[in-house]
Amino acid sequence: MKNLRIQILLGLLGISLARADTPLTITTFPALESCLYNNINLYVTPPAATGSFTLNGVSGTGVVQSEASGFSPPPPNAPNTLTLFNYTIDLSGMSSSANHCVKLAIHFGTPDGCNGPAVAVAAGQIQSATLSSLGNITFVFNGGCLQPGQSAISFGMLSDAGYKTNVVTIIDDYTNPSNGLTNESVFTIPAIVPDVAPSIPSWAYAPPLFQTIQYQGAIYYVCNAVPYKPINGALDFNLQLLDAPSNGLALSTMTTQTVQIANGLLNLPLPFDPASYGGAAPSYLSIGVRPSGMSTNPFTPLKNPGPVGNPTPQALFADSAGTVADLMPGQALTSLNGLNGALILVCNTGLTLSTSGNTMTISAEGTSDRNLKTDIVPVNPQSVLARLTAMPIESWRFTNDMAGVQHVGPMAQDFKAAFGLGDSDKTIHYLDASGVALAAVQGLDQKMAEGFQRQDARDVQLEQQIQATKQLLNQINQKLTGGDK
After folding, report:
1. Which domain holds residue 437?
2. Is-above-0.70 flag for pTM?
3. Residue 369 included in any domain
4. Is the pLDDT of residue 303 over 70?
5. Could you tell me which residues come within 8 angstroms of residue 416 by beta carbon, excluding any fewer than 6 positions away?
6. Residue 360 sits in the same domain as residue 390
7. What is the DSSP string of 40-54?
């Protein structure tokens, strides 16, 4: 796991998006195919993608399959080629749970149909499909929810655009039976979709699709000697509005979103009712982060809940940003232990940051869960022992230690050269050091066992030689005392 270096540049950006939703006609496959110019030409090897996902508290995985099955070439002077896209969402591999409500969103653009936009599906499987002005189609399945354990549902749509590999979005509303609160999670799954513009980033699918406030910032990590490297990839964020910055009551459900981070830049939509911001009573945003796909990991708070609703001096862009003079005492941290400006908090692997009010606690933990590991390969304990025996172990002190302070151990460069572990030759991770020590103990035990086996074999051989010598001496003694006649 890479060491995380996080620098948050806070800002709220107000934007307005017009919304004009269009309901899609729910039809059958034969009726949809009658809209084609000609019979469908099936691809010999259709472009296809399969993605899986998991839900909190549910065993097993859900699967989304997608493909561009074929196309219908247009006659002369007709519009573009029509491509048939087929999708299947299958939750039968999951354990049953009535507390989850699963929906699906696809950035598809406007699908073609005989009498307006349409989706083809077997009768009774899809309750509704709604097209937003952004080109996103949200599907509500029969009964309002698709629940874990239900059988697969397949449907198809036509598009006059080409195909590409992108993502579809799973929306899961989970009702906690202990308190009745609903937590909404969003997952992006690889899929074949129409190549329509603009290609809306994954955060745009997060419900509700009508967003008004953006949380902006920058997130970085560092691999020991490579500082300030921006994060690229997916992170999970959980968001909730509170009525106070400390021990506040919830003003909203807790929402989980998966956001793609590009070059360290974060553009996170806040999926709350715009009326929640900027009222007479302030609301405070609680936000946490974790690596995407690691649902068993806890969220790490980015900061104490802060007020939302008005542009701040730290905003990357705002129509009417405030100034430092507008801040009340205690609203901004201006220095830390003599450091001023943008402060960067570094957390090495195995450390956890937690906050309570204005107190931050840093604690160490030895996470070693098999479920969080990959590329697991057995080691040769005797090889580890041999390399450990050959590695220099010295006494030393750090350059900033006081005179007389001594430590003992290997140099990180020697450790890296001997074992090739970790991602730097400047540090030794304690898990690697303890792993090498444990493997060496096993190697020493094997070596001693082999030595005992060889000694036992020599003892048996020596005992046999002693018995043979005794027998020979007895024979000689008999000849000497009895004499040969």
Report:
1. 380-485
2. no
3. no
4. no
5. 422, 424, 425
6. no
7. -EE-SS--EEEEEE-
